[in-house]
Amino acid sequence: MDNLDLRSARSLSAGERAELFTAAYEGYLLPFRIDEQQLAAMDDAFDIDAEASRIAFRGGEPVGLGNLGVRGDDAWIGGIGVVTAARRSGIGQALMRALHDQARERGVRRVWLEVIVENTGAFALYEKLGYRTIREVEVWSLAAEEGPTSGREIPAPQAQARIRRVSSGREPWQRSDGTLGHYDDLRGLESGDGVALFRATAAVQLLQLAGQAEPLLSALRRLGTVSVLNLPTDDPVAETLRSLEATVVVRQHEMLLELEH
């Protein structure tokens, strides 16, 4: 580890960061490819602080990265990974500790992350670093279904205001108001006593919902396959999704570290 050098993510260009991100998730439980445009969108939506985020260099070559989103007293680990050849050498732990240091410098008190249930190695590392599991969350997919459109579209700000009035739960980082404030393509939908906020991109992304879920989900699936990211397992919407024969794509632990200052 003596030759490990941790630098700001600004030490790489956006294109280089995207290439490293993709390489660091090769062979992962959910591997993915990310390009420069997608990385920029993620940085913006999730408030990734490139100056606080870290790149691990070994022998002058980038071998790992850790992304840190910052919103006031809260921060979020927006992806941490190490290229295949450099794994199991302590780089992931070094990156995490560096991100914690950066968070402290910015006055952060709580650091959040999600880890796939099957990723027992990462889960053990996070527990070692002081994280505790807050709740279990699931990623759901509801297949599209043809049929007449139901529900009524309403302005997104109107839908969001109604949800805020009645919802008391904490949304995960990716679906929180802080994230939604970065989107200019939010849409609102009401049906019966329910109201939802969503985006229609490659899939229909259900972001927030309040009230009766079944009519809203039935309406949204007319627009395409519906995706719901990190829905708490005890959320009533999960039971409705199950009744509609939706599929759980992945299960995760949502974890929290309360930083000492």
Question: Please, could you describe this protein's structure?
Answer:
This protein folds into two domains: 4-108, 3-Layer(aba) Sandwich (Aminopeptidase); 139-252, Gcn5-related N-acetyltransferase (GNAT) (Aminopeptidase, 3-Layer(aba) Sandwich). It has eight helices and twelve strands. The chain has helices at residues 14-24, 36-45, 91-105, 120-128, 156-166, 177-180, 213-220, 236-243; strands at residues 4-8, 54-58, 61-71, 74-82, 110-116, 132-142, 152-154, 187-191, 194-200, 204-210, 226-232, 247-258. A twelve-stranded mixed beta sheet has the order 1-2-3-4-5-12-6-11-10-9-8-7, with helices on both faces. α1 packs across α2.
Task: Give descriptors for this structure.
single chain, alpha+beta, Aminopeptidase, 12 strands, 2 domains, 261 residues, elongated
Layout of helices and strands:
Blueprint: E1 4-8, H1 14-24, H2 36-45, E2 54-58, E3 61-71, E4 74-82, H3 91-105, E5 110-116, H4 120-128, E6 132-142, E7 152-154, H5 156-166, H6 177-180, E8 187-191, E9 194-200, E10 204-210, H7 213-220, E11 226-232, H8 236-243, E12 247-258
Parallel strand pairs: 4-5, 10-11
Antiparallel strand pairs: 1-2, 2-3, 3-4, 5-12, 6-11, 6-12, 7-8, 8-9, 9-10
What shape does the CA trace take? elongated
**What is the assigned CATH homologous superfamily of the largest domain?**
Gcn5-related N-acetyltransferase (GNAT)
Strand proportion: 25-35%
Largest sheet: 12 strands, mixed
* Helix and strand element order: EHHEEEHEHEEHHEEEHEHE
CATH class of the largest domain: Alpha Beta
The CATH architecture of the largest domain: 3-Layer(aba) Sandwich
Number of helices: 8
Going across the biggest sheet, name each strand in turn.
Answer: 1-2-3-4-5-12-6-11-10-9-8-7
CATH topology of the largest domain: Aminopeptidase
Runs with pLDDT <50, length 5+? none
Q: What's the gyration radius in Å?
A: 19 Å
